[in-house]
Design brief:
single chain, alpha+beta, six-stranded antiparallel sheet, 4 helices, 6 strands, about 35% helix
């Protein structure tokens, strides 16, 4: 299985496992009880997040912007979206029955391209 850990500090870590992660492993990665947040319902991608992260974790800017970007692919604006992603999250996908399954190589490449653009824009903002 291929997934991506997006840390609160905007670092990413690839996750490669032979089997799906256990509940305990998911909870350890997000530091708490898990909740599923859908990113794109057409390809079943989403995040496992800490369900109490908004109360005890900081905003995960990279994960939030990837989520917003996927919303914008389907809509013309973020109007009505006043939410954000907090803490460390696992970006992965689920099958038709809700079980974890691997991100495709194309989904990983799309995310990596977004991360590159995100880092370029963040550096430009810091330099101004």
């Amino acid at each position: 299985m291929k997934a991506i850990l997006i840390k609160e500090n905007n670092e990413i870590e690839m996750i490669f496992t032979d089997t799906k992660m256990t509940l305990k492993e998911l909870q350890e990665k997000v530091d708490g009880y898990i909740e599923w947040v859908t990113i794109d319902s057409s390809n079943s991608t989403g995040y496992y997040v800490n369900e109490e992260g908004k109360f005890n974790k900081g905003m995960n800017e990279l994960a939030s912007k990837w989520w917003y970007w996927n919303i914008l692919k389907k809509r013309d604006s973020l109007e009505g979206i006043d939410d954000f992603i907090s803490g460390d999250v696992i970006y992965t996908k689920s099958d038709d029955e809700g079980d974890q399954c691997s991100l495709t190589d194309d989904e990983i490449k799309d995310f990596e391209a977004f991360v590159f653009a995100f880092k370029v824009m963040t550096q430009k903002e810091e330099n101004n």
